User: Fold this.
Amino acid sequence: MSKSRTLSEIEPGVLFVVSGPSGTGKSTLCRAAMKRFKKLEFSVSYTTRRPRPNEVDGRDYYFVDESTFKSLRDAGRLAEFALVHGHYYGTSLDVVRARIGEGISLLLDIDPQGAAQIKERYPEAAFVFFVPPSPRALEERLRGRGTDPEEVIAERLANSIGEMRQCTWYDYIIINDDFDRALEKFCAVILAEKCRRERSTVLVEQIMAEYGLDDTPGTSG
Assistant:
């Protein structure tokens, strides 16, 4: 017979969807947040674009060709997918189902196209939009990478305007004007979402059982 878990061991898996223009610092903030939370993982997406310097297959993305990507899409194995800057991106449905079911929270760094698909499939997910402090700061960050040609930078700047319009339907908006402050706000969102009663059915049931309480609201044991 398996040992029952203590109250502190019962933690729901939460799907966190983060979006924002390229150069906003999403990936860096996600990796910093993962160091704070034991059961928080980065969901590695599939993409058809070529890896940038220092990117590692299986860590940053699963780099696949277009034929492989379309096979995954057509087989219904993607929780969401989108064509962004001429390349396909998508999230593994199998991974999302497995990890959330195991009580692991996942960070999905995806664009608003994919986020809208996730909202339809997982309306209980938490949606966070990161915003640069100004258009000038966004351009400086994109140019500071030193990895993209001028025409790519111009395209990303133009597309960023369209992405910014989508921030109106996200649950949380965090301005990344100061990294430490943005990280604290992001971690506060993660903590709050993990503690929501609606996500903790199993925890509530065990609290009722351990304290011998009636589960009818407003009654006393």
